[in-house]
Design a protein that fits this description.
The complex is a heterodimer of chains A (373) and B (289). Chain A is an alpha+beta fold and 373 residues long. Chain A is 57% helix and 16% strand. Chain A folds into 2 domains: 41-139, no CATH class; 144-367, Orthogonal Bundle (MetI-like fold), CATH 1.10.3720. A 7-stranded mixed β-barrel of chain A has the order 1-2-3-4-5-6-7. In chain A, helix 2 (16-37) crosses helix 13. Residues 48-56, 64-75, 90-96, 103-107, 113-127 and 361-373 of chain A have low confidence and may be disordered. Chain B is mainly alpha-helical. Chain B has 2 domains: 2-55, no CATH class; 76-288, MetI-like (MetI-like fold), CATH 1.10.3720. Chain B is built from 12 helices and no strands. The mean pLDDT of chain B is 85. Classes of the chains: A alpha+beta (373), B mainly alpha (289).
Chain lengths: 373, 289
């Protein structure tokens, strides 16, 4: 019997590569997001009057705020100096190594210390020399900025509202649908449930986009309204349009888990309820509803979590007035990944909180992903 | 006011039937309202798709005003190199990531299955992360990881990202099959002189095959359908179909998108019909045997 425990060890060893993989690709990225959210990178620039011999410092500790959009070159962006905001630009075509700093009352030109040597002969006006120091420091500035900024709070509350309304409507439509489906004969319900799930196989951007055709100002709904003699409605670029499409896109995620729990309810439990004298409604409220709660909670999680962060839907249907937090993260991330990470962390915390609130614990995940095929 | 009245005309019957649906099945009103309600949800589900398909045959540029029947946009789609290369990228990425994650995931699932309870719970909780997490956070966090590790964005980063969110689906579909598996058969194979490796390949793998297949199909669809994670991890050069559609919606829209989605929809229906027919065939055979 010696060979047996030895083999058990090797069988467990099958999972070792995955554990390494999971640590690198599943755990480390999240740790990185948290790390970034609590740090900022400082680009400390000092400005010198002269490059060679006794450099005279004109400005010290320019505090980096953020890169300009479209700029991969370091050093370009907005800075704070003595409470004043400065913009540094770079004329890449003319003098790639030259930066210009704009003040409220003028500008000075800078040359990067390391690359500027060749340009000294060119006799640029007001040329100063730049010394760059970079470092990372811990701070909660990113979070303070998020919660003290009216705009980002507005976007955050708006996303919560849209996600909440979408989930409520999904539940209102999804539960009766799942209930009716579960009451059908087995052969019929198998066919009908597949028909309800079919649209899920089409790319969700295409489904979202199809609604645009319907809802647009010159779209089909308005054409029909017009032909009946009713005034055209302005439906596009409203919160209503965003919620409508979110309900449409996430409805299968609500129907499916509820339907799966409803069809698994033991018939004998329902019969026992009737035998014990309960009428139809009593059975419905006291037996079927409580037994469907795991399905409802996983449906709510599967709708609410993606609805908070869905950003393509609001972009296509809502325009800029209806930007959600997901859109905000995507927009900010390229220019300021520290602030973007902080927003991601806020969403993660919110998601964890809602999952704990909804399902009590997050152990019901077996339902998720099951039954899709 | 008129629009409110108009909305109520549609909404009230639906809401009433929504409530009546829960009535006793013996009543006529319940049966009627169930049909009304399901039809309403059905129309809601298929209306946009119907519109999408109809306007793919529009001869004009508009996706909302009908100007006549033509196959113009299908021709244009066939000649569109961007779409063709995006389709190729999608297929390459989906197939390679699904294959790699199926093999890797199955092997890992077997390993995890034989782990002790506490480490097993930890590993399974980690495995759930990409499924429970919002796509955008997965995408953003992978982008940060690539930045730190210095992996350039392109095919490799895209496929790695897809593998990382596909593996959990494979593990979660294989795990239940491992639990259902009768361990006695494996021990019988060892008693009959099979080496552990042979018993693994010839006894365990065939028993968990349905889980492996559904894991593969699940990761294939997940990877084909993914948009947000690809957006962050693909870089500027590589573009999948979802990304291409997204940039099309930004650039201005022609019925070309409709033509593309019609084709995709027909392919999906065909695949589902074929697999369902096969399934019912095999069920019939089993019953006969």
């Amino acid at each position: 019997m010696k060979a047996f425990p030895k083999f058990r060890l090797t069988r467990t060893a099958f999972s070792y590569p995955y554990i390494v993989f999971a640590i690198i690709f599943l755990v480390a990225p999240l740790i990185l997001v948290v790390f970034y959210s609590f740090t900022r990178q400082v680009d400390n620039y000092s400005v010198y009057k002269d490059f060679e011999n006794s450099p005279e410092v004109i400005m010290d500790n320019l505090d980096f705020i953020g890169y300009e959009e479209d700029s991969a070159l370091s050093g370009i962006g907005t800075y704070y100096y003595n409470g004043e905001s400065l913009t540094v630009v770079n004329y890449r075509e003319k003098h790639p190594e030259t930066y210009e700093i704009f003040f409220a009352d003028g500008k000075i030109s800078l040359i990067d210390e390391y690359e500027g040597d060749e340009l000294i002969d060119e006799n640029l006006d007001n040329v100063k020399f730049l010394n760059r120091l970079t470092g990372i420091y811990f701070t909660i500035d990113n979070f303070v900025r998020f919660f003290s900024n009216g705009d980002s709070m507005k976007v955050f509350l708006r996303s919560l509202y849209i996600a909440f309304m979408s989930t409520v409507f999904c539940l209102l439509i999804g539960f009766p649908t799942a209930y009716v489906l579960s009451k059908m004969k087995e052969k019929t319900r198998n066919v009908v449930s597949v028909m309800f799930l079919l649209p899920m196989w089409i790319n969700f951007l295409l489904r979202t986009y199809a609604w645009r055709t319907l809802v647009e100002k010159t779209g089909i709904i308005n054409t029909i309204l017009d032909s009946v003699g009713l005034p055209a409605q302005n439906l596009m670029y409203t919160r209503g349009a965003v919620i409508l499409v979110m309900v449409y896109d996430f409805l299968p995620f609500m129907i499916l888990p509820i339907y799966n729990t409803l069809i698994k309810i033991d018939r004998s439990v329902i019969e026992a309820s009737y035998d014990l004298g309960a009428n139809h409604y009593r059975t419905l409220f006291h037996v079927i509803f409580p037994l469907a709660i795991p399905g409802i909670s996983s449906g709510v999680t599967m709708t609410f979590v993606p609805a908070i962060t869905a950003f393509a839907i609001s972009k296509i249907m809502g325009g800029t007035q209806c930007a959600t937090i997901g859109e905000e993260i995507e927009r900010v991330f390229n220019s300021d990944m520290w602030f973007g990470s902080a927003m991601s962390v806020i969403i993660m915390v919110l998601m964890l909180a809602s999952m704990f609130l909804i399902s009590g614990r997050n152990g019901d995940s077996d339902d998720i992903g099951g039954g899709l095929i | 006011m008129t629009d409110i009245i108009y909305l109520l005309v549609i909404a009230i019957p639906v809401i009433i039937s929504m409530i009546l649906v829960f009535g006793s099945p013996k009543r006529r009103s319940t049966r009627v309202s169930r049909i009304v309600f399901l039809t309403a949800v059905f129309i809601f589900t298929y209306l946009p798709i119907f519109v999408l398909v109809v306007f793919s045959f529009n001869s004009g540029r508009s996706t909302g005003v009908w100007e006549g029947f033509s196959f113009k946009w299908y021709e244009e789609l066939i000649n569109d190199d961007r779409i063709k290369s995006a389709l190729l990228t999608t297929v390459i990425v989906a197939l390679s990531s699904a294959l790699i994650s199926t093999v890797f995931g199955t092997v890992s699932a077997i390993g995890i299955f034989y782990m002790k309870k506490i480490p097993k719970n930890i590993v399974m909780n980690i495995t759930n992360i990409p499924i429970l997490n919002a796509d955008i956070i997965t995408g953003v966090s992978l982008l940060l990881l690539y930045n730190i590790l210095g992996i350039p964005l392109g095919y490799a980063s895209l496929i790695l990202a897809h593998i990382s969110f596909n593996i959990p689906y494979v593990i979660l579909s294989v795990m239940p099959k491992l639990k259902q598996m009768d361990n006695n058969i494996y021990e019988a194979a060892l008693d009959l002189g099979a080496t552990p490796t042979r018993a693994l390949v010839n006894v365990i793998v065939p028993q968990i095959m349905p889980g492996i297949v559904s894991g593969f199909l699940l990761s294939l669809t997940m990877s084909m359908d993914d948009f947000v994670i690809s957006l962050f991890t693909s870089g500027p050069v590589v573009s999948t179909l979802s990304l291409e559609i997204y940039s099309m919606t930004k650039r201005g829209i022609t019925p070309e998108i409709n033509a593309l989605s019609t084709i995709i929809f027909i392919v999906v229906i065909a695949v589902l019909l074929i697999t369902n027919m096969r399934n019912s065939d095999s069920k019939g055979k089993k019953r006969k045997a």
